[in-house]
Amino acid sequence: MGDRVILGQVLALEGDPARLGVDSARHWTHGGVLVRDGIIAGIGDGSQIRAQAPGIQATDHGAGLILPGFIDAHVHYPQTGMIASWGKRLIDWLNTYTFPEEARFGDAAYAADIAELYLDLALSHGTTSMASYATVHPSSVDAFFTAAQARGMRALAGKICMDRNAPDTLRDTAQSAYDDSQALIGRWHNVDRLNYVITPRFSPTSTEAQLEALGALWAEHPSCLMQTHLSEQPDEIAWVKDLFPDARDYLDTYERHGLLGANGLYGHAIHLEPREIDRLAEIGAAVVHCPTSNTFIGSGLFDMDLSDRMRVGLATDTGGGSSFSMLHTMAAAYEIAQLRGRALHPAELVWRATGGSAEALGLDHKIGRLAPGIEADLVVLDLASTPAIAQRANRANDIWEALFPTIMIGDDRAIAQTYIAGMPVKPA
Ligand code: GUN
Ligand code: ZN
Predict the structure, then answer these.
(1) Is the distance from the beta carbon of residue 180 to the nearest atom of ligand 1 less than 6 Å?
(2) How far apart are the first and last CA of the chain?
(3) Distance between CA atoms of 261 and 219, rounded to whole angstroms?
(4) CA 66: distance to chain centroid?
(5) Coil/strand/helix, residue 390
(6) Which of 64, 267, 294, 300 could be cross-linked to 380 through a Cys-Cys bond (beta carbons 3.0 to 4.6 Å apart)?
(7) Which ligand 1 atom is the nearest neighbour of the CA of 204?
(8) Atom 11, ligand 1: residue with shortest CA distance
(9) Which residue's alpha carbon is nearest to atom 1 within ligand 1?
């Protein structure tokens, strides 16, 4: 099971190219990846890899580029059906489109259908792992993990907790959020390749009592990640100030309730105050850049220089984000950085979507790189997937120039294959 030689171009990044230099990347035009028991056992020159594993089935992708599978560090799988909903900013968007859709997940059969649909879309876009928000309903977590487990994926998710400022059908309580989250941890955390994430939606939809209860739960289960939203839009930040008049800033609404820690994953983090940046850095927390969401809902321009001080993951934030594609997400990250005066190298973009997100999720020892001992979740890119991309890639002088048009213009047509633990899984 999962023993295979996969041949093609291979591009391996050992760490953040912004720190190590782009020259730290290794590229083989005729390379190979050896997989044993679903784990990478070797990478390098294709003929040498093949010679190491006589008799093992080989799949040759020719000029296809083998990368680690993409890792989406912040997504809402229940928002699959309402992606690309027009004309609202965050709070209106939640009330108009998001909450009515999430209310449908009280029906376990609907949740199962959308979980299957979402995961197939993710795999067909080359995304092999993700940290997803479910809805307030515990059964929406069961639906997601059941579908991810059946696909053999490394996946993370948690039940959203919210006990105010949401419709009746979407509200839990401080106690039920604690109890239900704890039961889900018992059922799913560290089962196969699944990890539970404690998930207060954001401080406007939780009372202080609920934040306190979830802080206590996290202290009891420190190996769980905790994911939430932070400083996405100015209106939201003003609302947080009204709701928490004693808090020093938005981050403090979490910090004072035990919801700031190194295993914390703070989505968006756009309009941060200096104290918030210092605290996130000091505590070793991770933030998640959601570029297509930040342009689509009109939230603002994330500062990639934060990656000098803290771990930064990359994410679609579907369906606030306007795409399931981490290629589109890299393109949007590139454009946002350009608007802030920084040109992200293709190596940095790939790193953010793979090893960078893995670091943000605290899973860089398991996923996100092509290296022996890392789980063999891979994507193979066709670098000439459309005529527009092919004509540009044809002029390329090196692998970066060959890859960048696919990052900027590519979509699921560029995904030649997706591997989970060494097995090809791209849906037909
Ligand atoms: N803030 C609170 N909930 C959400 C959500 O579902 N999407 C986004 N983008 N921001 C949020
Ligand atoms: Zn979100």
Answers:
(1) no
(2) 21
(3) 10
(4) 19
(5) helix
(6) 64
(7) 2
(8) 229
(9) 229
Query: Which structural domains are found in the chain, ordered by start?
Result: 4-69+368-424 (2.30.40.10), 70-360 (3.20.20.140)
Q: Write the pLDDT tens digit of every residue in 167-222.
A: 999 999 999 999 999 999 999 999 999 999 999 999 999 999 999 999 999 999 99
CA 146 / ligand 1 centre spacing (Å): 24
Whether the predicted pLDDT of 273 surpasses 70: yes
Substitution site in 80, 90, 96 for ligand 1 pocket (most atoms within 8 Å of beta carbon): 90
Distance from Cα 318 to the centre of ligand 2, integer Å: 7
The rounded distance, in Å, linking the Cα atoms of 91 and 63 is 46
- Nearest ligand to residue 94 Cα: 1
Q: DSSP characters for 316-364?
A: --BTTBS-S-HHHHHHHHHHHHHHTT----HHHHHHIIIIIHHHHTT-T
Neighbours of 91 (CB within 10 A): 15
Residue 202, ligand 1, Cβ within 6 A: yes
Grouping H, G, I as helix, E, B as strand and the rest as coil, residue 27 is strand
State whether the beta carbon of 28 lies less than 6 angstroms from ligand 1: no
Cβ of 233 less than 6 Å from ligand 1: no
Indicate the SS3 state at residue 399.
helix
What is the model's pTM?
0.99
Q: Per-residue b/e over 185-205, b at no fewer than 16 CB within 10 Å?
A: beebbeeebbbbbbbbbbbbb
